[in-house]
Amino acid sequence: MTDASMEPLAKSAPADRAEAGPFDESEVNPVRPYIDLGAIKVLPREGLNLRLEVEEQTKRIVAVGLDYADSTLQVQPFAAPRSSGLWEETREQIRQQVKHQGGRVEEREGPLGPELLAEVPVAAGGEGGSAGKRLARFVGVDGPRWFLRGVIGGAATGDVEAAAQVEDLFRSLVVVRGSSPMPPRDLIPLKMPATPGSA
Prior knowledge:
The protein is of the alpha+beta class and 199 residues long.
C-alpha cells in the first residue's frame, strides 16, 4: 500500500477553468486591453476600482485589491507545482488562522469549487468604533503552475447578485506565471501598471 500523505494534492479548479477562467496567459487573446500588473492581468470594466496593496518594509506589491459591486476582491497569485495543487493545503492554513483569531469558518462548495466562509472578529476603534464581525469568503483556483487565491468581502459574502458579479470578475483574471523557476508558494511578482500612453 502507498502512503496517502505522500500523494501530491490534486488541483482544485472549476472543470471549465480553461474556457471560463481564471485564465493562464496562454489561454487568452493578447490583443484585449488588459491592465498589466505583472503576474495578473485585469480586464477593465465599468465600476471597477483597482488598488495595489504594498508591504510597508519591502515596498513590494503583495496583493491586488479590486472594488466592485459593493464588494472587495483581494487576489494573490502564487507559483505552484505543475502536477499538484495548493488550494487544499492553503484552506487548512486559513482555517487555522481564522480559528486562532477567534473566528468561525465553514467549508462549502461554491461556484469556483471548495471555498471557506469565515466570520472574523474585527477590533474596535475603526469606523463606528465598535467591535464586530466581518464576513469573508476565501476562494482559490489551481491553474497550470500557478495558484490564484481570492478573498471576497462586502456585499458578495451574502448577496447572490453581487456574489455572481464578483465571481465573474475573479474568473476574468489572467495569471502570468512567467517562465523563470520559482519555488511553489512564492508570490509571483506584481508590478504597477504602465500609465496609459507610456507603453
